[in-house]
Write a structure and sequence with these properties.
Number of helices: 7
Structural class: alpha+beta
Distance between the termini: 61 Å
Helix content: 10-25%
Strand content: 25-35%
Shape: elongated
């Protein structure tokens, strides 16, 4: 039986709520030095990697700087901090819905990513909450799209994170979303959509393909507003969406399939030109409204509800004007 490799604790502290990068050197390879491997592995480029070594920013498990000519050792761990580029601050707060010794439930605003990824690193809900709550070990149990607002579950203790993540993996969390989209008189609701959704790496939009369904969503009409409130000839509607699975962009794809794409969606039905950084007008009108589960650690039955409102429903003209 193969013994699981023990991962040493990080010798570097977080920076602005962001963990250092950890790299384990592969068992097989022809690299002579650690530097050679990182130059090949990292997209930053040879000059950047050379600068990291020159500045002593690549360290081993003992916290000491790794020399640029240090011999390659398979299985060795090294750590370093990525260069934190300036990010446009998302000017909306993360609201705390619940906090105890095990979990934090946050109400995330539109435009804020859940966890560091790509160009969004310090301006993420996780990094913000680590700083604001002074909980360096805080981790995300799941993710919400950057453009979607609403409830996100975070864990306080790393050793308990797997138990909470398994709730989402095993579909033991009841989630309800709210969306504002055009009203379609001929659309029979409620209904359950089942399809196979594929999200290809490097492609912005997901799409449906033939095959065994991996995405299941129930769509209900919650409320209708007349055309006097805007949104087209037939006006708008507020929809209740209950996903049974969690594919990327699942609800956005399924609403588009029904012919009622969610207001403010830059990908469905057509991929729009990217908005300039700092443009926080006309947010996607999708909200993770309800989160229900039985706590796997305490056994408590939790039901949380977002206090946010969708702007296009309360003031369509203001939302459409980007106010």
């Amino acid at each position: 039986m193969r013994r699981k490799t023990r991962i040493p604790p990080s010798p570097l502290p977080q920076r602005e709520g962001v963990d250092p990068v950890r790299v384990r050197l592969p068992a097989e390879g022809s690299w002579a030095t650690v530097r050679e491997h990182l130059v090949e592995r990292l997209a930053a480029g040879a000059d950047v990697v050379e600068g990291m070594f020159d500045a002593g920013r690549v360290v081993g498990a003992d916290g000491r700087a790794v020399a640029a000519d240090a011999a390659y050792v398979s299985g060795m761990f090294v750590w370093f901090h990525r260069e934190l580029r300036a990010e446009v601050p998302v000017p909306f707060p993360v609201e705390i819905v619940h906090r105890d010794e095990h979990i934090v439930v946050a109400d995330k605003p539109h435009f804020l990513a859940t966890t560091p990824r790509g160009s969004h690193v310090t301006e993420t809900a996780l990094a913000r909450l680590r700083r604001e709550l002074d909980i360096p070990a805080l981790g995300a149990a799941h993710r919400l799209d950057r453009l979607t607002a609403g409830l996100v579950l975070f864990t306080v203790r790393p050793e308990e994170r797997g138990a909470y993540q398994s709730l989402f993996r095993d579909r033991r969390v009841h989630k309800e979303y709210e969306a504002v989209a055009p009203y379609a008189p001929g659309l029979a609701l409620p209904r359950t959509l089942r399809s196979r959704i594929v999200k290809e790496r490097g492609v912005l939009a997901a799409h449906e393909v033939p095959g065994e369904p991996n995405a299941i969503s129930r769509v209900e009409l919650a409320e209708r507003a007349g055309s006097h409130m805007g949104g087209g000839e037939h006006g708008l509607a507020r929809y209740r969406l209950v996903p049974a699975t969690g594919q990327t962009h699942q609800l956005r794809v399924h609403m588009n399939t029904l012919g009622v794409p969610i207001l403010g969606d830059p990908l469905y039905p057509v991929v729009a030109d990217p908005e300039p950084a700092g443009d926080f007008r006309r947010p996607l009108q999708l909200l993770a409204r309800v989160l229900e589960f039985i706590d796997p650690v305490t056994g408590v039955e939790h039901r949380f509800r977002s206090g946010r409102v969708l702007d296009a429903w309360t003031s369509y003209d203001g939302w459409a004007a980007g106010q």
